[in-house]
TrEMBL record, chain A:
<feature type="transmembrane region" description="Helical">
    <location>
        <begin position="241"/>
        <end position="266"/>
    </location>
</feature>
<keyword id="KW-0378">Hydrolase</keyword>
<keyword id="KW-0547">Nucleotide-binding</keyword>
<dbReference type="Pfam" id="PF00005">
    <property type="entry name" value="ABC_tran"/>
</dbReference>
<dbReference type="GO" id="GO:0005886">
    <property type="term" value="C:plasma membrane"/>
</dbReference>
<dbReference type="InterPro" id="IPR001851">
    <property type="entry name" value="ABC_transp_permease"/>
</dbReference>
<dbReference type="Pfam" id="PF12399">
    <property type="entry name" value="BCA_ABC_TP_C"/>
</dbReference>
From TrEMBL, chain B:
<protein>
    <submittedName>
        <fullName>ABC transporter ATP-binding protein</fullName>
    </submittedName>
</protein>
<keyword id="KW-0547">Nucleotide-binding</keyword>
<dbReference type="InterPro" id="IPR003439">
    <property type="entry name" value="ABC_transporter-like_ATP-bd"/>
</dbReference>
<dbReference type="GO" id="GO:0016887">
    <property type="term" value="F:ATP hydrolysis activity"/>
</dbReference>
<dbReference type="InterPro" id="IPR017871">
    <property type="entry name" value="ABC_transporter-like_CS"/>
</dbReference>
<dbReference type="InterPro" id="IPR003593">
    <property type="entry name" value="AAA+_ATPase"/>
</dbReference>
<dbReference type="GO" id="GO:0015807">
    <property type="term" value="P:L-amino acid transport"/>
</dbReference>
From TrEMBL, chain C:
<dbReference type="InterPro" id="IPR001851">
    <property type="entry name" value="ABC_transp_permease"/>
</dbReference>
<feature type="transmembrane region" description="Helical">
    <location>
        <begin position="61"/>
        <end position="79"/>
    </location>
</feature>
<keyword id="KW-0029">Amino-acid transport</keyword>
<protein>
    <submittedName>
        <fullName>Branched-chain amino acid ABC transporter permease</fullName>
    </submittedName>
</protein>
<dbReference type="Pfam" id="PF02653">
    <property type="entry name" value="BPD_transp_2"/>
</dbReference>
<keyword id="KW-1003">Cell membrane</keyword>
<feature type="transmembrane region" description="Helical">
    <location>
        <begin position="136"/>
        <end position="158"/>
    </location>
</feature>
Amino acid sequence: MRYRIGIIALAALAAWFLPYGLDSYAIHVVNVILIFAILAIGLGLCMGVGGQVNLAQVAFFGVGAYTTAILTTKTGWGFWLSAVLALAATIAVGLLVGTPALRVQSHYLGIVTLGLALAFTNWVTNAQVAGGAEGISAIPVPTIPGVDLSNEYLYYYLELAVFAVGLVFGLFIVRTALGRRMRAMRDDALAAGALGADVPVLRMTAFLLASVYGGLGGVLYAGLIRYVAPETFSIANMFLLLGMVIIGGRQSLIGCVVGAAGLYLVRELLADHPTVAQIGYGTVVVLVVVFAPTGLAGLPKRIRDLVTRRRGGQGEAARLQPFQPYETVRPDESGSQSPILEVDGISMYFRGLRALDDVSLSITPGEIRGIVGPNGSGKTTLFNVISGLYRPTRGRIRFRGQDSTGLAPYRLARAGMSRTFQNLRLFGDLTVEENVLVAIDRNATWHSWRYVARPISVLRRDRDLHRRAAEVIERYGLAEFAALPPKSLPYGIQRRVEIARAVAAGPALLLLDEPAAGLNGDEVRQLSEIVRSVRDSGVTVIIIEHNMGLVMSLCERITVLASGHVIAEGEPAEVASTPAVIEAYLGDSMSSDDLPSVPEVTG
Amino acid sequence: MTTVSEPTTATTNVLRVEGLTVHYGGVCAVRDLSFSVPAGEAIGVIGANGAGKTSTLKAVMGLIPRKVGTLSFGDVDLTRVSARSMVRHGIGYVPEGRHVFTGLPVEKNLLLGAYARKWNAETRATLAEIYELFPVLGEMRGRLAGALSGGQQQMLAIGRALMSKPRLLLLDEPSMGLSPKLVENILEVLQRLRAEGLSLLLVEQNAKLTFEATSSCLVVENGEVAMSGTSAQLRHDPQVRRIYLGL
Amino acid sequence: MQVFFQTIIGGISLGAIYALVALGFSLVYRTMGLVNFAHGNVVTVGAYLASTFYLTSKLPFALAMFVAIAVTGVIGLVIERVLRPLENRDFDLMLIGTIGFGIVLDALVIMIWGATGRAVPSPVPSAPIDLWGIRIRTYDLVVLAIAAAATVLLVLFLSRTKRGAAMQAVAMDHEAATAVGIHVGRSNAIAFMIGAGLAALAGGLVGPLLYVSPALGGALGIKGFAAAILGGFGSIPGAIVGGIAIGVLDSFTAGHFQGYSELVTFLVFTVIIMIRPTGVFGERTVNRA
């Protein structure tokens, strides 16, 4: 920590005294670099942290610059008023450009944003008000009483201040609740939604952030160069910006800044040979994605990993500790036990295929319900319908007395439903602790206005979240893995992390999709203990499982599905002796003496 | 080393695997596994989900990174043979979950099974044999593979592997997701193939099917061989039940 | 009414070019699940190569095209070979890798041919045909014929040849394809090569229609990509329908909005994608998404 403060102080000192060593051309270059760094931070937040491919960052930059230019030259309003309005305009455009992200992702989003960026250049090259191909010149100098901002040395300090605030604010977001949630969404939007992260709002937030930084860059650019023209906001510059973020390391804001500075300097050094420079950075982009996908920022870690591997690893230091049971909560016997979940006549068709056909079930609070059935019988589909991933073709679902049919997964999660996934959907690039933190955080994303208005309360809340996460991690015996990415852990431990995460969300109803798959005998026993304890703490559990031994010993009631129908329901022993079940599972022709039979595997 | 059955010395068409280890993202999925499949024999590998069965098969095929001491088929050393060349050495592979080429017609799927060979009159003859073995595929030859039922896709996957005229067939969970009736069909097919002299390495969760289709078995647990023996012995072993149900 | 048809005719020939570009995108996407963002730049390279061989080396137009296609095919091979380590691993990174190649190709074009453009005279100089008052340039008919022929050849290649079937198999399941003995890398390389060849074909053909400049491919690439998505990414009929649709849309917006045509085209495209992300023939893409 002291080491870090030292570095920050040193960097601040260097930034403060930098102009003293530079000639007037060099300071101009530094000023432009700072603008690109601000743009790169915005792009890094949107693309690297939020996972939203945004090829319109250069257009946000342009909207900021052009609006400032138009307002100052055409209306005669002051620079600062125009700047504020320009920022507002950029945000509006940013939200507009981001809307497609609600429907499409990845390369589709890439092409849409790129198309909209082209639409912007097309507009400014043609519009009278934007000065056409000539652009707008003679933008007035921004004024601060007593400071001559036409002096580029002094302008540097203005930019430095904006940049520093921007960087700190960006880092603040990345390291606290909002950024964590954005990174979770980037790694796995489905799982993030199932944990209560409002994915649509988060995607818009990513674009909001990109546009704020884009607008700031634009305003500063208009004030610095005092001339705007379409080619500054061309696709070539968009790709330059992208190159900065990729080479620097898109998931690290510091990396984005380093990338921006480095790439711009190289381009400046090769200013006489722009095509050579372009070939150079294009090649570097290709090399980086192939050989160092995490960019410059990821290099130290890769080197460290390499060194530890050379030394033969640290051995098996981390150990899983035993689970500490929850305190038992006496179920409240007084009230009438109205069902917590009612599935009423659900049918689900996929292009003519009936995955579920008129399935009904009712779950009473406090029970552990098992759902079994051969592969392809519709168990996971049923979970997906209950948790809101699929909208059923027919039928209604009531959760805690409310009609929840067709509700978005994150709304159901907020209402108290939590689930795990058959194939483990942990956030791979987050640590175990962060995985749990995402689940604990129950605030709606729009609460993030506090980041601007009340940053201290955000920090305080984050500290509280960390404390609660530590409790969960301790309880599940994961303390020694807290700082590790789940990908590096053995399968059994990953399964436990996923359950810890689902329970950390504080659900009333917990859906477990094949929690024992891939676990060994001992781990299955521990799982059984965990599930029982979770139930005793007042959570209702529905469990899909193939391991019949586990289901038989754990569940009070079992529902058997076959080909999308409920073919039996009742207590374990009762169900196991139902002929229809034996037929579905074993098929009478092959049932023979004492052969073990686990009739299916994960799909 | 665990040998399922006594290796007949210097016979051709013996698959030998010694010291097979697979790491999956820091997790050891298969640990120092050794076994062999003698010519014309059927060997089973059973175990619970996640025990390392599929990894074993994929590692033998070279589809995933592995470490292996000895890997040979007959006189051919396979340690440096790439996955796509295995078929040229007489090894057919039926992947878990069938993995047919869903967007192509049934017949194209089968023909692609013979990709490594010239497409000629002989290929046509093999195709006719496959249609004879699986009449339903003949009826559906023009249909897209994705439109077939699970059972039909499984037959297609086996048929595709047979199109290369293999001497050893690796099968990964052919019973997966099939009704008992269809599992029985698969069993019949496997028994027939074995009768025709094809060696089989069958990886299965369905112990019943495996014991009936094979002569000896390995039981794997957590990437290691927990026990092995003839199928007849194992099917009555109470320990198998324990390993299997995790009780 | 006559104006209306004239606009449509005007859109169709450019639409055929978009369709060729879209076919290249779709083919590579279909086999590798990858969007090649350098595709547009390959179009530029193709256009310059074809025009250079045609104008400077005085080769016949057809031969010039042929040489251009061969050279860009090699460029496609190089791109695929370099990015091969990322195949079937990280498509977002591959996408950015292709953007990197695009940047390099863009600079190479400027380095070799300069920043200014050139006009290419039509290789078929006869007067336009007059059909019920609608004027059709003969070169437009040539473009349509070649585009149609290329599409038919591509479809035949995919459906009738062993290599074509193997390429599709790789797209559907690369592991199963490996197990039957298909060299996945080589198959992808061929897909990339054909994709680049289609780009060169589009670039060469568009030369006499538009002005050949370094910015040519950017515009064509993005519209071709829009066409591919509009039709349903990965679908061959989709690429054709999408290409023609974008061409006609372009032609109408150029007539009604003049300089703002690009703006309107992209806005319309954005709205369509939001309403129907999978495009017209887009069910295939569901597998990959």
